[in-house]
Write a structure and sequence with these properties.
heterodimer, A: MetI-like fold, 12 helices, B: alpha/beta, D-Maltodextrin-Binding Protein, domain 2, 2 domains, 6-stranded mixed β-sheet, 5-stranded mixed β-sheet, elongated
Chain lengths: 301, 313
């Protein structure tokens, strides 16, 4: 059926009946292969979710969200880790949104296309592939020790910002490039200066893509364990941060610690922690889609 | 319009901070007669093996001293000693004694310390529960299995009478303090071992591997064996004084040798002048024994704790 539809659409008149059949068979095989590909990836995800849900749901409760860690699985909660994550990710957002968008605009609209900007470009793409623990060690020596920030929320947020900035910059540049050249030229023709073009013509059209990229980058940051273990390493604490210079823990550190304990109950807790992390991620991704749709509608008006 | 959106986003990202800032205060206002007015911070780092004991002590201490922040981190014994030697932390959890290089580093920074033994961990050697031929191995047999370039392919290669069943080795990865200790005691030099074994940083993976593989042998901390007794078979270790299986008694009286290792906390002496640190260390010495056995270790003897108390005075 699919094969036939394809033939009609592209007017691929068959030369003989045998050839038509073989073509149809091929297209069905291709369709089945695609089906297998999608179901394989979905099965992986689904079995993960089912397994996590089976282990973690019995442990998910209100006090799991509002209690501090404990050596008793029944009493243990994630409050400090959840609040630590909220703090760190909020500050990461505050850092990467202006810096990432600024860098993208500089590279796309302001930088001369010379060797230097080429080098910068290549480096940014390469940075996106550096293992995250490297950023953790860099953050530890630069932010924690050299800048004297200590093992604080701010040091953690700066480290995560370095980690995801390349992604934000690359995605933002793509978004900026989708703005038609004619719109910019029209604005320049009307006497707009470069800032006005960037601010009033390019940014409104590119913001949807930029924001989607930013939130996806933050979604990556929220699940990072390795650099946060290097920066914080804190597992037991009985307070939530009240300033950017406070110590902190984050959800992945807490989950990692629970998984590695000898007692079976803690693996249930870890699964519950993963559920909380997944829900946070889904909310963030939903937010990304919402923002994209909303801004697109506005532009069409 | 764009400005509007950006400012909204910033608002959204700040909101939780404001909320947490408000909600976190009431916790500290509860006062009752048996709660102290101590405040301040205690920074602890170090071994993941000792972490459960320090965490348990911190948790109990928090019940009585809710205004003191006890932060317990896990950077490994070596990572903790680095911070300890620079005076960054008050207490380091250690699953081994301080090394000479670490001692020198501490001296250079003017950090004086006391070493307090809290408990003992018995590295347990385990085989799969279906194994009915191995009950006891001598340390030299263990060495034959674990030395670099080992010639033991089948159990029958080790001792006549063992079946021709392949030996499947499981052990902690090379970053682990447990690996350091085991290789030092069995192979005679830390970090020297055959690489023909399945390594994992996660002891629970080792538990599953050993319990589900025929002919398996592996080693890890006593607490992990205690939690998985029904899936594992412990092997007695013969060091020339007969076959000794790790139990609370044999680990405590030192007869489970050479695989018993002491667990320490190292306390920065200067920090004992801070009242909250002094109170915490005293608390540790009173309740440490009970809590160490509660989390799966064998507590150090009363004499050791008495000695610890004298050291801290």
């Amino acid at each position: 059926m699919i094969g036939k539809h394809f033939e009609e659409k592209y007017d691929l008149a068959p030369h003989s009946r045998g050839r038509r059949v073989s073509r149809r068979v091929k297209s069905i095989i291709f369709y089945l292969l695609l089906l297998i590909a999608i179901s394989l990836s979905l099965t992986g995800l689904l079995s993960l979710i089912v397994e996590i849900g089976r282990e973690g749901l019995p442990w998910l409760s209100w006090h799991f969200l509002t209690e501090f860690p404990s050596r008793f699985a029944e009493k243990a909660g994630m409050k400090s880790a959840i609040m630590g994550t909220v703090w760190v990710i909020s500050f990461t957002a505050l850092i990467i949104i202006p810096v990432g968008i600024g860098a993208a605009f500089y590279l796309e609209e302001y930088a001369k296309k010379n060797l230097l900007s080429k080098i910068i470009e290549v480096n940014i793409s390469n940075l996106a592939g550096v293992p995250s623990i490297v950023y953790g060690l860099l953050g530890l020596s630069v932010f924690v020790y050299y800048m004297g920030l200590g093992r604080s929320v701010l040091a953690g947020a700066l480290t995560l910002s370095l980690l995801v900035l390349p992604v934000v910059i690359v995605v933002s540049r793509e978004a900026i490039r989708t703005v038609p050249e004619s719109h910019k030229q029209a604005a320049y023709a009307l006497g707009a200066n470069r800032f006005q073009v960037v601010y009033k013509v390019i940014l409104p059209q590119a913001i949807a893509g930029i924001m989607t990229g930013t939130i996806l980058a933050l979604s990556r940051a929220i699940g990072e364990a390795a650099p946060m273990i290097a920066i914080s390493a804190l597992v037991y604490l009985t307070f939530v941060p009240t300033s950017p210079l406070d110590r902190f823990s984050v959800m992945p550190i807490q989950i990692f610690n629970w998984i590695s304990r000898p007692q079976d109950d803690f693996r249930g807790l870890a699964a519950a922690g993963i559920i909380v992390l997944l829900i946070t991620l889904v909310i963030m991704n939903a937010l990304a889609i919402y923002i994209r749709n909303r801004t697109q509608v506005r532009l069409e008006e | 319009m764009v400005l509007n959106l950006v400012s909204k986003l910033i608002l959204v990202s700040i909101l939780p901070i404001v909320l947490t800032g408000c909600s976190s205060t009431p916790d500290n206002t509860i006062t009752s007669s048996n709660k102290t007015s101590l405040s301040g911070t205690i920074e602890i780092d170090g071994s993941s093996t000792v972490f459960p004991i320090s965490e348990a002590v911190a948790e109990e201490f928090y019940q009585e001293n809710p205004s003191v922040r006890v932060n317990v981190a896990v950077s490994g014994t070596g990572g903790g000693f680095k911070r300890f030697a620079s005076g960054e932390i008050h207490i380091n959890d250690a699953s081994r004694e301080i090394k000479e290089t670490e001692r020198i580093a501490a001296n250079q920074n003017g950090v004086e310390f006391v070493e307090l033994q809290i408990g003992t961990d018995g590295l347990s050697v385990l085989v799969d529960p279906a194994n009915n031929y191995v009950d006891c191995l001598t340390t030299s047999e263990l060495k034959k299995i674990w030395e670099p370039g080992t010639k033991i392919e089948y159990w029958s290669d080790l001792r006549a009478g063992f079946p021709r069943q392949k030996v499947n080795r499981f052990g902690p990865d090379t970053d682990s303090g447990t690996f350091d200790f085991f290789t030092d005691k069995i192979n005679g030099e830390a970090q020297v071992s055959t690489d023909r074994y399945q390594a994992s940083a996660d002891d629970n993976v080792l538990v599953r591997g050993i319990s589900g593989t025929k002919g398996a042998i592996g080693y890890f901390g006593y607490a992990y064996y205690q939690e998985n007794k029904e899936n594992l078979k412990p092997i007695g270790v013969d060091n020339g004084n007969g076959c000794i299986i790790p139990t609370n008694t044999t680990i405590a009286d030192g007869s489970y040798s050479p695989l018993s290792r002491p667990l320490f906390i190292y306390v920065n002496v200067k920090s004992l002048n801070e009242p909250q640190v002094k109170a915490f260390v005293d608390f540790y010495l009173i309740h440490g024994a009970t809590l160490a056995s509660e989390v799966g270790y064998v507590a150090a003897s009363d004499e050791v704790f008495a000695k610890n108390k004298r050291l801290v005075e």
